[in-house]
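Reviewers of the previous submission asked for a worked example of the structure-prediction workflow described in the proposal, so we include one complete record here. The input consisted solely of the amino acid sequence. No template or homolog information was supplied to the procedure at any stage.
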Amino acid sequence: MAVRRSPRGRTAEGGSDKAGNPPDAQDGEANRGRRRIAAGHPEPVGRVVHSYPAAGAAVVELSGELARGDTIHVRGKTSDFVQRVESLKRRGRRVERAKAGQQIGLEVEKRARVGDQVFRVVW
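From that input alone, the workflow returned the following structure tokens.
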């Protein structure tokens, strides 16, 4: 067990972390810095190339197929959210599905930033 020194100079073995979490809730060295992807099987489908935060939209360059009704996970340095695709637009017109290599407009519920990865979650 690791010996830690408290702010008052006392030592303690085991115990909790600074937030008061029990030892079993602390991250191990192997998991430190890793973030989870949404449950299910994530398939990378593209990345955000432009963002319109005021309009709640993003332009995504696709590397895979995406359809209206799919569940996506948008993940980046500061972005991390899951949502259902309600609206897909290509050249200003609504489309039901888009193929790899196309750039599409996508309504997003939270802010997506340039460079964020987009995954389709398959259950």
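The chain has a mean pLDDT of 83. We consider this example representative of the routine output the project will generate in years two and three.
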